[in-house]
Amino acid sequence: NAGVTQTPKFQVLKTGQSMTLQCAQDMNHNSMYWYRQDPGMGLRLIYYSASEGTTDKGEVPNGYNVSRLNKREFSLRLESAAPSQTSVYFCASSDLSRWETQYFGPGTRLLVL
Amino acid sequence: GENVEQHPSTLSVQEGDSAVIKCTYSDSASNYFPWYKQELGKRPQLIIDIRSNVGEKKDQRIAVTLNKTAKHFSLHITETQPEDSAVYFCAAIYSGGGADGLTFGKGTHLIIQP
């Protein structure tokens, strides 16, 4: 099992460009999450999907959209990137029976110039 | 919503000594408290967790204690080793309402001095 995978690992964007961060899990988990990590700020929830077909906003959703493509995949889209979105983005997933125990992917480092 | 405060932000200890990291939470409904370890450039990994019906939990050299009345919980690492150097995050959540995101503290950078 690969667990939670994310692509790309690193990306540089110019202000105003758009991109989609991909996340997939092979653990048959129901719930998936997107967090961002900034220096000195810990991890903050952007969006989550409790189950296939549902998505909800987290603490910092502005400037992002998500799509739960199927049970395995959960993507995060930046429609018009801003320098404030420079961050490390982590995807996580959890099982229905113990959804609070979340397993993280390796992260995507995004630099917006 | 939940708010988690974590202290200290940086902790330097001599190899072999103990390290203690403390967190407080604001929502008395929170009942699940995990601790994650993140090495430089890597993903956060769950190292230990505790639920509100338990006061203490141990796993080899690490332990977590919970004081529900005071709304604080702590991570204890004994006999520290160089591989314990990392950033540690505490988190809190109410697990009875269905899937939701974790609320994290801002992290503690633990440095083990040789």
Helix content of chain A: under 10%
Structural class of the helix and strand makeup of chain A? mainly beta
Cα end-to-end separation of chain B: 41 Å
Order of SSEs of chain B, N→C? EEEEEEEEEEE
How would you sum up the major sheet of chain B?
6 strands, mixed
Beta-strand percentage range of chain A? over 45%
Number of helices of chain A: 0
Structural class of chain B: mainly beta
Report the oligomer.
Answer: heterodimer
Low-confidence stretches of chain B: none
What is the CA-based Rg of chain A, rounded?
A: 13 Å
Could you say which overall geometry of chain B the principal axes of the C-alpha atoms support? globular
How big a fraction of the residues of chain B is strand?
over 45%
- Low-confidence stretches of chain A are none
What does the radius of gyration of chain B come to? 14 Å
Global mean pLDDT of chain A: 94
Mean pLDDT of chain B: 94
As a percent range, the share of helical residues of chain B equals under 10%
Describe it:
- The complex is a heterodimer of chains A (113) and B (114).
- In chain A, 0% of the residues lie in helices and 51% in strands.
- Chain A has strands at 4-7, 10-13, 19-25, 31-38, 42-49, 56-57, 64-68, 74-78, 87-94, 103-104, 108-112.
- In chain A, strands 2, 4, 5, 6, 9, 10 and 11 form a seven-stranded mixed sheet that branches. Chain A has a four-stranded antiparallel sheet with strand order 1-3-8-7, with no helix packed on it.
- The radius of gyration of chain A is 13 Å and the shape is globular.
- The model of chain A has no long low-confidence stretch (mean pLDDT 94).
- With 114 residues, chain B is mostly beta strands.
- The mean pLDDT of chain B is 94.
- Chain B is globular, with a radius of gyration of 14 Å.
- Chain A binds chain B through residues 30-31, 33, 35, 40-45, 48, 50-51, 58-59, 90, 94, 99-107, and chain B through 1, 6, 9, 32, 34, 36, 42-46, 49, 89, 93, 95, 98-107.
